[in-house]
Design a protein that fits this description.
The complex is a heterotrimer. Chain A is mainly α. The longest helix of chain A is centred in the middle third of the chain and has 27 residues. Chain A has one domain. Chain B is mostly helical. Chain B has a domain of 138 residues. In chain B, 71% of the residues lie in helices and 0% in strands. By secondary structure, chain C is of the alpha+beta class. Chain C has two domains: 35 residues; 113 residues, Cupredoxins -  blue copper proteins (Immunoglobulin-like). Chain C contains one helix and ten strands. In chain C, strands 1, 2, 3, 5 and 8 form a five-stranded mixed beta sheet that branches. Chain C has a five-stranded mixed beta sheet with strand order 4-10-9-6-7, with no helix packed on it. The longest helix of chain C is centred in the N-terminal third of the chain and has 26 residues. Chain C is elongated, with a radius of gyration of 20 Å. The chains are: A mainly alpha, B mainly alpha, C alpha+beta. At the B-C interface, helix 7, helix 8, helix 9, helix 10 and helix 13 of B face helix 1, strand 6, strand 7 and strand 9 of C.
């Protein structure tokens, strides 16, 4: 069990990396959505 | 089974007879890359408005060659060659019968390719690789394309037979991960190519031969896109195979999770196919409800890519920390950046972030109107297939080709390969960014240079089209570089043994559950989803069909 | 099957984002009617010129409908009829279009008006033109050698 916990704390960089990817996806999607709403 | 030589080397070598078959596929793939790439260069030059094609060559003829050779021929041949080698490497040497099937498939595909290419060059088939009925090509073009598909099925049967043989010899064992992935990809290919086969055999061939007068246009497009979206996953999954199985070994780490890798491949099998309507969102004759349903299924196919992103970062971080990396991102610096087998596919991975984000926008139902058939879409798939997939394939070539030819990648070639990756990244950033931006401004894809009657909007597009030409020219330099390296690896590199790297699963990971390999369950769900997504709208299409269309030759 | 804690967080975040996108587009489609263009009307592609409303292409003011104008536009290789359309700023317009031969596109550059025209089908899209200016109409679905010379112009005037 202690080994697993150790492993869990190892992947902080991964969490932040995928988090940045996710934020990028959200931001671009809402920019496109805004453009869609703005146009007729 | 391990030979003395292999024991001494510490790794398995693909049987030379299987290697020859894999290499035959590679030859065709790289010839296609050269001709198709040259056509791409001509296109960006024409579209800059500064250049016209000589000798009466048509823009759309060049575009057809580019699309068919790079989208269908390069990809299919490379993938089959890679998968033959991967199967032989992980499940054992092919039997003579299996290998013979592989060769028959190869020649059927090649005859088809030559037949179709001849018709395109004679300007009898400028219908682009998406066919565009009721534009009507020469029947030989359609027969040629059908042979390419049938040939790929025959190769697929050889791969399936090998897999079944392994499973029978090892009851109760999960199959080798790479073999399993190959079989998932070929199962998806088998199911999705049925759509385009039905279109070509039952609609386009009889119609182009004059046996029937008319074609149902909407049905033909629906059958095409039933195939057309899984096609892009057929390109992507071999890249994912390299990422999941090969890259961890190259960086000296472990496969993060065998079970999650298998799960993500099975999710691709389920959700790649019942999503073709997201290519038809602006078309008449399909009810909005069914379009939206397939949009929902399209979003599901994003999930296995989310899993993959995590697995990649995790195997990088674990390896970096093992090497003593500190801090949040210290592991990033510990990766083997001077190894082309890692760096080139890594550039491909990075490209998949904007590519994926763009893809989600494309599939977002009515938001598709923003970009449908604009050159944004071209920019999008030049990131997905022409960067993510292709750079991973290039990166794989740097060990696969010397492995098969019994040569080694020299330090010099490795350096050149990294330069090639950087050249590609620079060229593609310029070209793809220009395409995305000008696409949002309204510039269409698949179009010759035009001032559109001097319209002010079209004038604003021209600087971006020049940027595309700059990026495209840099990319062509990239093609010359890769071909130089490939020729070196095939014929001139020093003799030696190169490893076909296969990663091992982390020792902490548990054994993958067998339900992940229960094909009865997965194929049943897969077919149920397809029927759910397509049955009602296709019946409506057929019941309410307008009078069909006769053929036109407008080029 | 063991899934790392952070991977669970990531999947939750990722899947929630996808659900959010679907809720937004689904809600605007099925509640506010912002669907992608579609059409359920079927027509004989070889008799387009004889069938209303395509026997009279152009801009028509209408009364008692949810829209003020109907723009009827016929596409064929490699023309749009009419070659120019003028509608007043702020009016709600229904675009009704079909093709006489192969598949064509009907895209108004810089707007959301973007639909595929298929032989035998009538494509429709309703929108309120709330920006003045000249918008290029062009064919964005490959239709043959004259594909990129196929244009019309939408003028939104005050």
């Amino acid at each position: 069990m202690s080994k697993k916990k150790e492993k869990d704390s190892d992947l902080k960089g991964t969490l932040y990396s995928v988090g940045l990817v996710g934020i990028f996806i959200l931001v671009t999607w809402f920019m496109a959505f805004y453009l869609f709403i703005d146009r007729f | 089974m391990t030979t003395i030589k292999e024991k001494a080397l510490g790794f398995t070598i693909v049987d030379r007879r299987d290697g020859k078959l894999a290499l035959a596929n590679m030859y065709v793939a790289f010839i296609a890359l050269f001709i198709g790439g040259l056509c791409g260069l001509l296109q960006v030059l024409v579209r800059s408005g500064k250049f016209t094609l000589p000798w009466g060559i048509g823009y759309y003829q060049v575009l057809t060659v580019h699309g068919v050779l790079l989208g269908l021929i390069l990809t299919t041949y490379f993938i089959l060659g890679f998968q033959i080698a991967a199967m032989s490497r992980t499940s054992g040497t092919f039997t003579d019968k299996q290998r013979l099937l592989g060769w028959i498939g190869f020649w059927v595909m090649t005859i088809g390719t030559v037949a179709a290419a001849t018709m395109v060059l004679l300007n009898e088939a400028s219908v682009l690789y998406t066919f565009y009925a009721p534009l009507q090509a020469h029947w030989i073009f359609y027969v040629g394309m059908a042979l390419v598909v049938v040939g790929s099925w025959i190769v697929g049967i050889a791969l399936f037979m090998k897999y079944i043989e392994w499973r029978k010899a090892n009851p109760g064992q999960p199959s080798p991960l790479l073999s399993f992935m190959v079989v998932v990809n070929m199962a998806m290919w088998q199911i999705c190519t049925l759509g385009v086969a039905v279109e070509v055999v039952f609609q386009l061939i009889p119609w182009s031969l004059g046996w029937v007068d008319k074609v149902d246009v909407l049905l033909s497009r629906t059958l095409f896109w039933y195939f057309g979206h899984p096609l892009v996953y057929f390109w992507l999954l071999p890249a994912y195979m390299v990422w999941y199985v090969v890259i961890p070994k190259i960086i000296g780490g472990k496969i993060f999770s065998d079970a999650l890798a298998r799960l993500s491949f099975m999710l691709f099998l389920l959700f790649s196919i019942p999503v073709g309507f997201h290519h038809q969102l602006t078309e008449p004759g399909i009810q909005s409800f069914w379009k939206f349903l397939q949009v929902v299924l399209t979003m599901m196919v994003v999930i296995p890519s989310l899993l993959t992103a995590f697995s990649m970062f995790a195997s990088f971080e674990l390896r970096g920390r093992q090497l003593g990396a500190k801090g949040l991102f210290g592991w990033f610096k510990k990766l083997p950046w001077n190894d082309a087998r890692f760096t080139v596919p890594f550039i491909g991975m990075a490209a998949f972030v904007p590519a994926g984000a763009g893809g989600i926008i494309n599939a977002s139902h009515q938001m598709n109107q923003l970009i449908h058939n604009t050159i944004w879409v071209t920019g999008h798939f030049h990131l997905t297939v022409a960067t993510t997939v292709v750079l991973t394939f290039f990166g794989a070539s740097y060990w696969l080709l010397p492995h098969l030819t019994g040569r080694v990648l020299t330090k010099q070639m490795n350096k050149l390969a990294i330069i090639q990756g950087i050249v590609w990244a620079v060229g593609m950033t310029i070209m793809s960014a220009a395409m995305h931006i000008v696409g949002l401004m309204g510039a269409p894809r698949r179009s010759d240079f035009s001032t559109y009657g001097g319209a002010a909007q079209a004038t604003d597009w021209i600087p971006y089209q020049i940027a595309q030409a700059v990026g495209g020219t840099i990319l062509f330099v990239g093609i010359i570089l890769i071909l130089y390296i490939v020729v070196n690896l095939l014929f001139f590199a020093p003799k030696g043994e190169t490893e076909f790297p296969i990663g091992e699963v982390s020792e902490h990971a548990e054994k993958s559950p067998m339900w992940l390999e229960n094909w009865k369950i997965w194929l049943t769900i897969c077919i149920a989803l397809i029927l759910f997504a397509y049955t009602v709208p296709v019946i409506e299409m057929i019941q309410n069909a307008p009078p069909g269309s006769k053929g036109y030759k407008f080029w | 099957m063991h899934i790392h804690k952070y991977e669970k967080w990531w999947l939750t975040f990722g899947i929630s984002s996808l659900v959010l996108f679907l809720v937004i587009v689904g809600f605007s489609a099925f509640h506010y009617g912002s669907h992608p263009p579609t059409g359920k009307v079927y027509i004989d592609p070889e008799r387009v010129d004889e069938i209303a409303p395509f026997n009279n292409p152009g801009v028509h003011k209408v009364e008692g409908k949810e829209w003020d104008y109907e723009v009827v536009l016929v596409a064929s290789a490699f023309f749009y009829n009419p070659p120019e359309i003028e509608v007043p700023l702020g009016s709600t317009v229904k675009f009704i279009s079909t093709t006489k031969d192969v598949v064509h596109g009907f895209q108004v550059a810089g707007t959301n008006i973007n639909m595929i025209l298929e032989p035998g089908y009538v494509s429709e899209y309703v929108t309120t033109v709330d920006k003045a200016g000249e918008f290029l109409i062009l064919c964005n679905e490959y239709c043959g050698v004259g594909h990129s010379s196929m244009t019309s112009m939408l003028k939104v005037v005050e």
